[in-house]
């Protein structure tokens, strides 16, 4: 009996030891996720909460070229990525069918001419017979002559219509080659348009050849429909290289196109709440006019970052401001749940300016961009183990290239 008592006691002690070890691992479901203050504030290389979007450098002007309706392209003379000058040929129409149609139309003109001559001959004969006809038959001859005159007018009208078709076909024969009206680069060629597939799966018109003009550039970016309210025309933005984080350009939003949705959603979202939504909702294009485009390359992929009111520099120092949702007020004092040595602590902070549009508060003391804080909720207590959200520590969150 004593032997079994010792075994049971030993098991209880071992269980307590294992339980104690488990409480300190910090890998359980009770670990509190914390966010980077620098990320929330959009400083120190971070783009801010839902404040960075994928973009691509494109020309200020593009030209879309589609074949004329009813015409067949015989040969495409350019390739994607090829540079073209104004006046360079793009493609050639097939004129074999036009030649056959033209010959048939010319035969129809000859037939109409013959009909008109025949009607005039019949009118002359009827008028001659009418002279010797009785009074009772005079009216019948008059009707026959008027019918012939009406047939002549119809034939002459048909001849004009046919001649117009012939003139158009001759013009098509002479203008069988389509030329570029701008200097630039062939951005894309969609051969499926030649097979009659003129619209995509979204019902939007497809383009056979798209040209990008050389010269001044702009940036096209995309924003999710859930976040489109964040941007307005005229707002300042920062364009950042995807390869070199310190290489940036400035500009303003010139246009927000909500008239049609974009097929691909390339927005970059931080935080776990919007990831799924961004994959299922629509996105819209918006455009940035740059103050300078030196060093940019056509087709280059970039990041577009909104220049927030709270991220401006004051007296040479960048403002540190975080969303009000991360702040807790007790009486006249304000606190945040901050991470310290892997544990949660309740830390007092001093607030400065409130930015109403962004609902953020300037932090005068108590936090630095290198700190991590948790979103307040019931059940938080000092000493709880913290963990850093994987999404917010991804390469793109650290300013790296997207995979």
From the 3D coordinates, which CATH architecture of the largest domain would you assign? Beta Barrel
CATH C-level label of the largest domain:
Mainly Beta
Measured by DSSP, the beta-strand proportion falls in 25-35%
> Gyration radius, to the nearest Å?
39 Å
> Can you tell me the overall shape?
elongated
How would you sum up this structure, described in words?
This protein is an alpha+beta fold and 403 residues long. It folds into 3 domains: 22-48 and 311-398, conserved putative lor/sdh protein from methanococcus maripaludis s2 fold; 52-60 and 215-307, Elongation Factor Tu (Ef-tu), domain 3 (Beta Barrel), CATH 2.40.30.170; 97-169. Helix content is 27%, strand content 32%. Strands 1, 17, 18, 19, 20, 21, 22 and 23 form an 8-stranded mixed beta sheet that branches. A 6-stranded antiparallel beta barrel has the order 2-10-13-12-11-14. Strand 19 (333-340) and strand 20 (343-355) form a beta hairpin. Helix 3 runs antiparallel to helix 4. The longest helix is centred in the middle third of the chain and has 40 residues, at 135-174. The two termini are 65 Å apart. Residues 1-28, 264-280, 312-316 and 390-403 have low confidence and may be disordered.
Layout of helices and strands:
Layout: H1 2-23, E1 32-36, H2 37-41, E2 52-59, E3 62-65, E4 73-76, E5 83-84, E6 89-93, H3 96-132, H4 135-174, E7 177-179, E8 184-189, E9 209-213, E10 217-224, E11 236-241, E12 248-262, H5 275-280, E13 283-290, E14 301-306, E15 313-314, E16 317-318, E17 321-323, E18 328-330, E19 333-340, E20 343-355, E21 360-365, E22 372-374, E23 386-388
Parallel strand pairs: 1-23
Antiparallel strand pairs: 1-22, 2-10, 2-14, 3-9, 4-6, 5-8, 6-7, 8-9, 10-13, 11-12, 11-14, 12-13, 15-16, 17-21, 18-19, 19-20, 19-22, 20-21
